[in-house]
Write a structure and sequence with these properties.
alpha+beta
């Protein structure tokens, strides 16, 4: 059985106070992929890297129809914004001093999903 998927975006604030946009894929009522895009960094999470994936069902995330987007818009953000957790020109370890308190630490792109 194929999961019922919906896609959302909303304003987000990073742990360091940067304002950006969060994109979420919701499968059967629960977040399955997420990317947060900020001016100098981006963060991603998925079911295989869930440490920072939203852990509440859609019903409590306060996302309404006004936040819903197309699958294509989500996939564009996932492909272009989801490089792990990097600041302009620096790798994740340099930006976080070797630890990451917010994002899945990964030196490459998130996995490609079919």
């Amino acid at each position: 059985m194929t999961a019922s998927k919906r896609y959302f975006k909303h304003c987000a604030e990073s742990d360091v106070g940067a304002v950006g946009t969060a994109y979420l894929e919701i499968a059967d009522g629960w977040p399955s992929r997420q990317v947060e895009v900020y001016p100098t960094m981006s963060c991603w999470a998925d079911e295989q890297h869930p440490d920072y994936l939203a852990d509440q069902p859609l019903s409590v995330l306060e996302l309404g129809e006004e936040h819903e987007i197309s699958a294509a818009e989500f996939e564009l953000a996932w492909a272009s914004g989801g490089w792990g957790c990097q600041e302009s020109g620096q790798d994740s370890a340099a930006f976080h001093g070797g630890t990451c308190g917010r994002c899945s630490l990964n030196s490459g792109r998130p996995p490609t999903w079919s």
